Amino acid sequence: MNTNDSKCPRKIIAKNLHDLPRSGIRDFFDVVSSMHDVISLGVGEPGFDTPWHIREASVFALEKGATGYTPNLGLLKLREACSAYVKKTFQIDYSPKEEIIITVGVSEALDLAIRALVDPGDEVLYHEPCYVSYAPVIRLAYGKPVPIPTQKEDHFRLTRDQLEEKVTSKSKILILNFPTNPTGATLPSKDLADIAAFICKHNLIVITDEIYAELSYEEPHVSIASFPGMKERTLFLHGFSKAWAMTGFRLGYACAPPEIIEAMMKIHQYTMLCAPILSQEAAYEALQKAETDIAAMRDAYRKHRNFMCASFQKMNLPYAEPQGAFYAFPNIKDLECSSQEFALKLLEKEKVAVVPGSAFGASGEGYIRCSFATSLDDLKEAMVRIARFLARR
Amino acid sequence: MDELLNILKTNALETPENLAKMLNQTEEEIKAKIAEYEKNGVIRGYQAVINEDQLDTHYVTAVIEVKITPQREGGFDHIAKRISKFSEVQSVYLMSGAFDLLLFVTDKDLKNVASFVSEKLATINGVISTATHFMLKPYKNHGILMESHDEYERLKVSP
């Protein structure tokens, strides 16, 4: 039968995409957008504006005429700056010429990484609750997402035992994201060492999304790529959105062995060409004063975190104290409603937006994600409103 | 600097309850610390930062550069402290460079400032010369912008 027959119209949208659900956040966003005077704890971005010296450098670059393409891999001076920063901060040495690619946010870097590595049917392990795009990106590459649920009682840690339970002969990749969006979990060095041994034993490749690395409140962050023998099998993803409050610049980078960067570059070159030059110039400036900017933001977030946790404690809302990122992930299971219902009611009654935990995978059900990267005034008011909401139930 | 002081510098009205939550301490500990800072003089006072441009007041502020002769046994301190005592004088700083003291003086009109300079300041023994600049418009004061601009609207929910 001719599938172009007008009496039997072909399906327009590709099957693989058709079966892919919309992000739960997107649905919730539509509801919130229709309301006014909402205090939002629902955003996955810093409440700060980008530091002024970075914005000023972008304006200057624009004046100078930085309006063209850059090399596919990104401006060499930026790759050199990233290389130096990663070496100084995480003690991993990457060659700026062949082991680093500048991407449009970590989102693109993740997509490139998955597409460069996954053959149809390959299994990709990742800990859950997790960032919304992991499972869809794997599915778009015809891979099989294998989530590993983590628990509040465990501070959302990922352990070797959990991994051993899920690994099969088809497992190829493990995605790590510590500190974690949405739980604020971090992973102690000892656990990382166990996981590194697990990866070597099963001959896996790690994609480590370290976008929140600078926002670790108790212990300095350690990257899995810095463990012996791991650099060769790790894709280290990082970017400027969180630690420098540059979400709208859309700039990230991937560091990996040359063979993998070369493969990612092929996709990047044919689909994106290069990351925007202005954002690259801004990122270069960001790395010039990295320590001062980051220390100021981390100190502010730590106070916000303490404030939010102390407030939840007063409300008897169970939570695991976030050790990193800028989210708390309190448990609302005792309230006998789904996280979606809770979030909608809270929005309707008190005009506070939080994100239902179910948006971050099945194991996020029963939780809500509350960002503390908002202004202190909003945070105070939101805590008053949530306390009132809980008291009335 | 102590985190407590850092927060109070940004917002002196922050309640002990909120400070306690942010710094993981008890309210009593916070209150005791503040009392200690007040007692030993680290905290010298609390003020509101006001944009006088928005008010119908007609005060003028002058910034005055003053050259002085340092004195034996006291250097610049003696004269600087003496000048500080005038109620018109809001701030006094010892400076490096072409002059010695920088004064911020506020009075109700230009004439009063002029008479303060010519009759009180310039006549002090040890004051060599003065240069008076009148302030026209404040843009930023104590780290706070004097004009608020519309916030660029952010998304209310994002991943």
What layout of secondary structure does this protein have?
The complex is a heterodimer of chains A (393) and B (159).
Chain A lengths: L14 H4 L5 H10 L5 E2 L11 H13 L11 H15 L9 E4 L1 H13 L5 E6 L5 H7 L3 E6 L10 H7 L4 E6 L12 H13 L3 E5 L24 E6 L12 E4 L2 H14 L5 H12 L1 H25 L12 E2 L10 H12 L1 E2 L1 E2 L11 E4 L4 H17 L1
Helix pairs in contact in A: 3-10, 4-10, 5-9, 11-13
Chain B lengths: L2 H8 L5 H8 L3 H13 L20 E9 L8 H8 L4 E6 L6 E7 L2 H12 L5 E8 L5 E2 L2 E2 L14
Antiparallel strand pairs in B: 1-3, 1-4, 2-3, 5-6
Helix pairs in contact in B: 2-3
Describe this structure as you would to a colleague.
- The complex is a heterodimer of chains A (393) and B (159).
- By secondary structure, chain A is α/β, with parallel strands linked by helices.
- Chain A has two domains: 15-50 and 292-392, Aspartate Aminotransferase, domain 1; 68-290, Aspartate Aminotransferase, domain 2.
- Helices cover 41% and strands 12% of the residues of chain A.
- In chain A, the strands form three sheets. A seven-stranded mixed sheet of chain A has the order 2-8-7-6-5-3-4, with helices on both faces. Chain A has a three-stranded antiparallel sheet with strand order 9-12-11. In chain A, strands 1-10 form a two-stranded parallel ribbon.
- In chain A, strand 5, helix 8 (189-201) and strand 6 form a beta-alpha-beta unit.
- In chain B, 31% of the residues lie in helices and 21% in strands.
- Chain B has a four-stranded antiparallel sheet.
- Chain B has 159 residues and is an alpha+beta fold.
- In chain B, strand 5 (140-141) and strand 6 (144-145) form a beta hairpin.
- The radius of gyration of chain B is 21 Å and the shape is extended.
- Chain B has helices spanning 3-10, 16-23, 27-39, 77-84, 110-121, and strands at 60-68, 89-94, 101-107, 127-134, 140-141, 144-145.
- Chain B has two domains: 3-39, no CATH class; 52-137, 2-Layer Sandwich (Alpha-Beta Plaits).
- At the A-B interface, helix 2 and helix 11 of A face helix 1 and helix 2 of B.
